[in-house]
Specification:
- This protein is of the alpha/beta class.
- 40% of the residues lie in helices and 22% in strands.
- Among the domains are: 98-209 and 383-392, Nucleotidyltransferase, domain 5 (2-Layer Sandwich), CATH 3.30.420; 219-378, ATPase, nucleotide binding domain (Nucleotidyltransferase, domain 5).
- Strands 6-5-4-7-11 form a five-stranded mixed sheet, with helices on both faces. The chain has a five-stranded mixed sheet with strand order 14-13-12-15-16, with helices on both faces. The protein has a three-stranded antiparallel sheet with strand order 1-3-2.
């Protein structure tokens, strides 16, 4: 059984699988390499794994066999005709090895069930009346998961719980130091959810979760230097990859991009300063123009791309121009290969892609924007639950042989 009532720190190792090692003493490392490769890249043949990982065929066969015995992978025969010799079987990650994912926000709590390979089995949106407290969040998640217990126990093995929080999270303890839009202060969220559900839990900032998900499964795949900026009802967050490694900072608070100063004479931010990016570029200011309190992400796309309201168009253009200044600052600091926009920032880009592209080029310093690609994040509504699950899978991916036998069934 997994350790009940425990939380564990968020991952800080490179996201890519790496290559194998033929030294017999590093068998566990090689198992980790293969399982991570399958988890991130999907089903592959043994021959593919041999080529990618630099191990010989017999070693790959033995390691794959061990992953199959651990019920972390399974094999299927190839069906292609015309191949010479004995066809190499496909090796699949077992998506019944799963993680629970939780994303609390100001208007709803999202609970997901995500299998190895990033397969989203369930995504449940539980709308809340007002800001949910930590205790309410734990109770809601427990009630939803308890309703799934029969299916979880009969069909899945749970690696743990990953939590994406719109705020500052201490990565070593899973304590939410500050989630200002939720009015949470020094809350041991990972520990509380772990005790309530009986699975180990890990918590992280939602934007850091998002950059990991996009870099593995989305528009940031294969990019080592990446800036991800997300806009949500809670404000603007950011995540950064530097040389393929997530930027954490000394206390895990790195890349608080929403608190970049863009207008010294602007609105007062909850952080105490005026004119932060997240006060000047804000979903609520768009909703106020269109007379709405909330809006679905897909509907927002439609509204922003089809509206003929001059007031809305003026606000969209104002926010885009300010956003471009902020993005140019990030480009100067991090010199990324790619910048991704998620949440309602992606909707702004869908409304005026040329204005954003040109605005970033005009505001950027010298050649820093040369060769840069600016894209919308791809995972949309799956983003945070897939990313949160990645944190929950970290221990299993790092040591399949040591972790799999203890997974909660």
């Amino acid at each position: 059984m997994s350790t009940v009532g425990s939380s564990r720190p968020a991952p800080s190792r490179p996201l890519v699988a790496g290559v194998g090692n033929s030294n017999d003493q590093t068998r566990r490392h090689n198992l980790s390499t293969i399982l991570t490769t399958l988890h991130h890249g999907g089903a592959q043949t043994r021959a593919d794994l041999t080529r990618k990982l630099g191990l010989n065929r017999s070693t790959i066969a033995a390691l794959v066999g061990e992953l199959v015995d651990l019920d972390l992978a399974y094999e299927t025969a190839r069906t292609e005709h015309g191949t010479v010799g004995r066809p190499s079987p496909y090796v699949h990650p077992n998506d019944r090895i799963a993680a629970l994912a939780v994303n609390p926000d100001t208007d709803a709590i999202i609970i997901g069930l995500v299998g190895l390979g990033g397969v989203v089995h369930k995504r449940i949106r539980y709308e809340t009346d007002g800001l949910p407290s930590v205790r309410e969040t734990v109770n809601i998640v427990k009630a939803v998961v308890d309703g799934m217990r029969g299916e979880l126990e009969s069909t899945f093995r749970i690696a743990g719980i990953g939590i994406a929080v719109p705020g500052l999270v201490r990565v070593d303890t899973g304590v939410v130091a500050l989630a200002p839009h939720l009015d949470w202060h020094d809350e041991p969220l990972a520990e509380l959810l772990s005790e309530a559900l009986g699975y180990p839990a890990v918590a992280a900032n939602d934007a850091n979760v998002g950059v990991i998900a996009e870099s593995i499964y989305g528009a940031g795949r294969g990019v080592s230097d990446l800036v991800y900026v997300n806009g949500s009802p809670s404000g603007i967050g950011g995540g950064v990859l530097v040389g393929g490694v997530p930027l954490r900072g000394a206390s895990g608070y790195g890349a608080e991009l929403g608190h970049t100063l863009v207008n010294p004479g602007g609105l007062l931010c909850h952080c105490g300063r005026s004119g932060c990016l997240e006060t000047e570029v804000q979903l609520n200011r768009i909703l106020a123009v269109i007379g709405r309190e909330t809006i679905d992400a897909d509907e927002l796309d439609q509204v922003l791309t089809t509206s003929t309201d001059p007031a809305l168009e003026t606000e969209i253009r104002r926010q885009i121009d300010v956003l471009c200044l902020g993005l140019a600052n990030f480009i100067s600091v991090f010199n990324p290969e790619r910048v991704l926009l998620g949440g309602f920032l992606g909707s702004l880009m869908a409304a005026h892609p040329e204005r954003i592209q040109q605005g970033v080029r005009d505001a950027s310093f010298g050649e820093l924007a040369a060769g840069l690609t600016l894209e919308r994040a791809q995972l949309r509504s799956r983003l945070l639950i897939v990313g949160a699950a990645e944190f929950a899978f970290e221990e299993l991916l790092a040591d399949p042989a040591g972790t799999a036998p203890a997974l909660t069934a």
